[in-house]
Design a protein that fits this description.
The complex is a heterodimer. Chain A has helices at 5-10, 15-34, 43-51, 56-66, 81-86, 102-106, 115-125, 131-134, 145-154, 171-192, 198-222, 231-241, 246-265, 291-297, 312-315, 326-338, 349-361, 376-392, 408-421, and strands at 70-74, 89-93, 137-141, 160-163, 276-282, 301-307, 366-372, 396-401. Chain A is of the alpha/beta class. Chain A folds into 2 domains: 2-197, 3-Layer(aba) Sandwich (Rossmann fold), CATH 3.40.50; 202-317 and 347-421, Rossmann fold, CATH 3.40.50.11900. Helices cover 43% and strands 21% of the residues of chain B. The chains are: A alpha/beta, B alpha/beta.
Chain lengths: 422, 258
């Protein structure tokens, strides 16, 4: 670890504070993830992705840039990785999942915005985000008001591009999104001084689809009566997906999937006959945040499905693979991303249908709606989700919380009571 | 039945221990929860003989490590205890030291939907305790004074810290202390009413927890709900009773070899 101190200081990080951050995240990772029993062996790689997020991965990105490549930071799964990859640009998710940096954000930002934004910006403000100085451009989007205004603020000090995600799903909205995808491609062409080529784009589409298929296969094992992997560990894999090199990640995940297949055959499971099967629906749990999964899985249940941005929303639906022109392929990309059922849409019936479908596919005993504090979209949409669950006779529990640990006693009572009822 | 079974409710403010023999309450004790709850409970159990213990309350897992055979949440325990005390009960409003909850009780003494307050002490016994002391009353004197007020002074903040400064500023600006006391009770009742609106109120509503002894909160809440509530003789023992009933069922299930 110590040989990275020089790298951090060259990146102008606050090396001491940064070490405190790593210690804090490492402690939580140990307590909430590594301490689990009966983990698949090949998770070790994904553990290392999490642990190496501020070390080896950063060095890799620096090397990538030194070799002429570019790096973009993203904050949302609406930003199409395919276009970046086709231009030799490496996308990395910059969302913060640690409470450590939140006080540094609250010195500037209002307190009553979501912990994800505060954590992310707190890392940048406190000079503990190694990606901030490494990225060539950041890409924001318009999935909530706090984010939009944050991008305005950051746009003054960093190279920034904002994609407008529409709020409805009419033909005019699809056309708007189509144009946004094209504009994003043009912006990346400018950044790289390269022109998007059909063959490269087609290769990138196939690569990202491969990643989606591997994640879908991972999720298919969770549908089993005897899930061979915990929800916490499936989340670790998902968090790694948002940070790691795409091709390498695919290979490692395919390897893990083989191990899971074998565990399934041999009846090695993280569940016993009494374990309740729970789906988490709603907001993402990004790197540094394992709170909800940990609470649920240490209360006698297994999380078998994540209907979140760090779950099904990330990998369901593929981009149509074709050998058409750049324009045709961009259209196919726009169509796939437009299917994401983020709560920023109105109306958003697809999401309710998806939740009910997933509840059946994964045979869940109950659904925990996970809402990050001040995320109004998911918080209010929870009403319609709760109503639909009730009509289907599926027990539901809504939890609104942030990254802190102060409410874990109360949350544990609510989760245990919810499980007693399922 | 030879030996009694125990239900222990280790709450944030008070600990309750109830012994049940042959389906009847044999003894009940209640004491403040302090910094060493395990020692206090061990002390209290010294002279008791018992065959099984089920723990509930926020300290249930701590008790499980030391004394208890099983744990249940206070939601489940409270529903069970309420059903035993009042067979027609279909809803419990339980207002304890640091949380308040509304529970839909099912006909078999289980529970369906439930709602709990958010993380802070707003709308709980702790809020009333802090406000009573700010106004210079003991707990009972506080609600008695509120009942004597003609009209309430509106309190806008439900945060314990902010409400305290609001109360201090009202008093220094010459507001009637009893009216402020009534305003604080009204604020709690409104908060509980909002929580109760989130579940379907049907059948008898039972009010449990330490705050059930506060007649002013009870009256104001009944007015909001437009219905009478059942208040058991000892509203603080409901969850301990429920835990003991569950301990009894567990013991019976074991006894018949199931």
């Amino acid at each position: 670890m110590s040989d990275y101190r020089e790298m951090w200081s060259r990146l102008s990080l606050d090396v001491e504070l940064h070490q405190q951050l790593l210690d804090s995240m490492g402690r939580k990772f140990g307590e909430q993830v590594l301490r689990q029993q009966n983990r698949p062996q090949r998770l070790r790689y994904f553990d290392d992705v999490i642990r190496g997020a501020h070390t080896a991965r950063v060095q890799e990105l620096i090397d990538h840039r030194n070799a002429g490549g570019k790096v973009i930071g993203t904050f949302c799964i609406y930003v199409p990785d395919e276009i970046a990859l086709a231009l030799g640009v490496t996308p990395v998710a910059l969302c913060g999942g640690t409470p450590f940096s939140i006080p540094y954000a609250e010195r500037t930002l209002p307190r009553d915005i979501c912990p994800l934004i505060k954590s992310t910006l707190g890392l940048a403000f406190s000079k503990t985000c190694p990606y901030a100085p490494v990225k060539d451009m950041a890409v924001g989007e318009t999935t909530c008001d706090a984010k939009k205004k944050t991008w305005d603020f950051l746009g003054k000090v960093a190279n920034f591009h904002v994609m407008e995600v529409p709020q409805k799903k009419q033909a005019t909205d699809a056309a708007l999104w189509q144009a946004e995808v094209v504009a994003f491609a043009q912006r990346l062409e400018q950044l790289t001084s390269r022109a998007l080529e059909a063959e490269e784009l087609s290769k990138a589409i196939r690569l990202v689809n491969r990643k989606r298929k591997a994640l879908a296969r991972l999720y298919s094992y969770r549908k089993s009566e005897q899930p061979p992997i915990s929800g916490t560990d499936a989340l670790v894999v998902m968090q790694a997906a948002l940070n790691d090199d795409a091709a390498r990640f695919c290979g490692k995940l395919e390897g893990l999937n083989e191990e899971l297949e074998e565990r399934l055959t041999r009846g090695i499971s993280v569940a016993d006959g009494r374990s309740r099967r729970v789906m988490i629906a709603g907001c993402p749990s990004v790197m540094g945040n394992w709170k909800m999964h940990h609470l649920i899985e240490t209360s006698g249940a297994v999380v078998v499905c994540d209907e979140t941005c760090t779950g099904t929303r990330y990998f369901e639906d593929l981009v149509a693979e074709q050998d058409g022109s750049v324009e045709q392929q961009l259209r196919a990309i726009a169509e796939r991303y437009m299917k994401i059922d983020c709560a920023c849409f109105s109306p958003n019936e697809e999401r309710i249908e998806n939740i009910l479908r997933l509840a059946k596919e994964y045979r869940v005993h109950g659904v925990v709606q996970y809402v990050l504090q001040y995320c109004h979209g998911y918080n209010v949409e929870a009403l319609n989700v709760a109503r639909a669950l009730k009509e289907e006779g599926i027990p539901g529990l809504k939890i609104e919380t942030d990254y802190s640990e102060e409410d874990t006693g109360q949350l544990r009572t609510r989760i245990e009571a919810f499980l007693e009822r399922t | 039945m030879s030996e009694p079974v125990l239900g222990i409710d280790l709450g944030s403010r008070t600990t309750k221990i109830l012994a049940l023999r042959g389906g009847q309450v044999e003894s009940f004790q209640i004491f403040d929860t302090d910094h060493d709850p395990v020692a206090r409970v061990r002390d209290a159990l010294k002279d008791l003989t018992f065959s099984a213990v089920v723990a509930t309350g926020y300290g249930r897992h701590l008790l499980k490590a030391h004394f208890a055979d099983g744990v249940v949440t206070e939601i489940k325990a409270c529903a069970r205890g309420a059903k035993y005390l009042c067979p027609e009960c279909a809803t419990v409003i339980d207002v304890g030291g640091q949380d308040s909850k509304v529970i839909e009780v099912t006909s078999d003494g289980g529970f369906a939907n439930f709602e709990m307050n958010d993380r802070c002490a707003a709308g709980t016994g702790k809020f009333l305790e802090v406000m009573a002391s700010t106004l210079g009353y003991d707990i009972e004197g506080f609600w008695r004074a509120a009942l004597e007020a003609e009209s309430p002074v509106a309190i806008s903040s439900m945060c314990t810290v902010f409400a305290e400064s609001e109360v201090v500023s009202l008093i220094t600006s010459g507001a009637d202390v009893k009216s402020v006391a009534l305003g604080l009770h009204q604020a709690i009742a409104d908060r509980l009413y909002a929580l109760a609106c989130r579940v379907e109120l049907k059948g008898e509503v039972l009010l449990a927890g330490g705050v059930a002894k506060n007649n002013c909160v009870r009256q104001l809440l009944e007015k909001r709900l437009q219905r009478r509530m059942v208040v058991p003789d000892n509203p603080q023992m409901v969850s301990a009773l429920g835990a003991a009933l569950i301990a009894n069922e567990n013991a019976l299930a074991r006894g018949t070899g199931r």
